[in-house]
Known about the structure:
6 helices; two-stranded antiparallel ribbon; mainly alpha; about 150 residues
Amino acid sequence: RWSNLLLIDACAGLDAEQLQYTANGTFGSIHATLGHIVSAEEFYIFVVSEAEGERPARPDGNIALSELRSRAESSGNALLQLATTVDGSEKLHRPLEDGSLFSISKEALLLQAIHHGHEHRTQIESMLGQLGIDPPGLSAWRYSAEVLEK
């Protein structure tokens, strides 16, 4: 949650052209990648919740960063709650829209959430650097200093 919110806040000052910036080897534009990170976290929560209905709507390219931030805060809070209550060996099974069955342990799902978000946040930080903008620096060192040691 911390790193997603920090990165979205860092991108809030970008203009429309900068938000559409992309680079080879990345998911897509800065804006699309932020939406992808949030959408994936919402999917992980959807899988874990075993709630009825369809998965949350994927953000489109026109979604305001303030809305992405709100959704990132919500999904981040849910993942943090899950991390404190998880029985890692428990298997989750979720039928998907295409009729296939998605199966994963809760432990693997949390690991995927961490890895996936980190990979794409790093891509965005690289794109910011290519634009000549100092990225926010989302290291574990910074997290420790700002969150854990307070």
